Fold each of these.
Amino acid sequence: MTRHRTVERSEDVRMAAPLLHEAMPFIAHAAIRTRGTIGGSLAHADPAAELPAVMIALGARIRLESVRGSREVAAADFFTGLFSTALEAGELVTEIAIPVTQVTGIRTGTAFEEFSRRHGDFALAGVAARVAVDDSGRCTLARVALFGVGDRPMLASSCARMLKGQSPSAEGIRAAADAAARDDIDPTSDIHASSRYRRHLAGVLTRRALERAFARAHTEGTST
Ligand SMILES: Cc1cc2nc3c(=O)[nH]c(=O)nc-3n(C[C@H](O)[C@H](O)[C@H](O)COP(=O)(O)OP(=O)(O)OC[C@H]3O[C@@H](n4cnc5c(N)ncnc54)[C@H](O)[C@@H]3O)c2cc1C
């Protein structure tokens, strides 16, 4: 029942989950954010919504409760299709747990990008990225979740494979972003944008997000 505005203004969220903090102002307008809730957004599972992709990039776990009991589902398994989730009849989302990892010798960085026709509109395409590098600058983790480019938020696995173990260069990041746009998504055409245009946006936004996330990992080394 936590409203978007509460998450947006939370100092704890800003410190512990900067990716979530960065994404919040992209959700609709202030008036909507004072009413909408984080649990409602995840349960609603709009494929162009920001929060589902952020939760997948952060490796969040979602607690579902009913009179039958309680269970936890990884965000990556929660979204099952267009406006569809793993929620069963009678279940409520009651908790969203975001891991805050601090591993010696590993530095992480995150970044969020989206493109919409007007600020506050649902995105035509967007990306939430979390990367980690070791002391030698090699990528140990790349979780890139794209939204608005399929029936649900999508984890870019071929993009991640290309980055892992590499010391990311501008060319390497561009190639991984191109792979995400080519192999990891399945955008449809609608009145807002063609499938081809959405693929193009996905490539550009993924490249920008990865560049910023790696730069942040190198300079700031945030802990999520
Ligand atoms: C004009 C407008 C613009 C918007 N733009 C954006 C945008 O740009 N990006 C974006 O991400 N979202 C956007 N939204 C969506 C908005 O941010 C809310 O996330 C969304 O409307 C859900 O609202 P709510 O939390 O009040 O949930 P509700 O509308 O109350 O619920 C949505 C669905 O989820 C179910 N539900 C709610 N909470 C739970 C729970 N805890 N457990 C299980 N099921 C639950 C409800 O039964 C219902 O089926 C927009 C909405 C509006 C009206």
Amino acid sequence: MLPVVYSPRYEIKLPGHVWPTDKYRLIAEQLPSEVEWREPREASWDDLALVHTSEYLAKIREDRLTANEIATLELPWYPALADGFRLMVGGTCDAARAALDRGLAAHLGGGLHHAFANHGEGFCPLNDVAVAIRVLQRDCGIRRAAVIDCDVHHGNGTAMIFERDPSVFTFSIHQQHNYPVFKPRSDLDVGIEDGADDQMYLAALSGALPRVLESRPELAVYLAGADPFEEDRLGGLAVTKAGLAERDRLVIEACRKAGVPVAMALSGGYAADVRDTVDIHVRTVEIMIGLQ
Ligand SMILES: [Zn+2]
């Protein structure tokens, strides 16, 4: 059975915010029964310090984020959020461990790819993707890892964190003319034009995946963002639900064929109707179940 990491504590309160934090519960409620549920453990401050600077972690821990830092984060910050996000980072770590053990694992959360070592941006205070890779390199004897970031927004924080690290191959396929304005170089960036349809998007993805796998990763963290969807409020592509399902199949099959374990994290999804975002993520997990 597919290990699925999830906590009801992910439904943090963000009144009026575009981030539908109820999506986590809604996805969990709709998953098929043949999954193995796992409760995440909070990432420790030591785990977080593998990626984030001690100055930045102290600011979070002691509730000393400045008004500017909170504005960049684009979250209505309050201290209890720190625990919620530490739990979500722990969830990606747990999913990554489960993936090493079982080949595939899903995290119904995470994908906080806009967090840098020394600051947070765009709803992402802590970078779960980077922390999970560093924790597995420390604890599980893996050397090389890859990030397959298919959120519609560029994975700027992750790219910068691993910029000088040849052991981690960062790949981002994203809408070129969208947030973030400054896109630090990943090992492989594929910027998609506004309004790209299924065919254009999937052709670009298919062309890129062999290059990611040539780096011979021992683990791939897959950010299966729902925001390339044509009706997403923060995306500008024209990819359909069927196109996103094909994307998931392409990524997971390519990794399976190459013998690379995959830990999936959700990342973004802001469809006008949250049920669309939920459908897309549920389908991703169903595809993973089918490809075990
Ligand atoms: Zn996004």
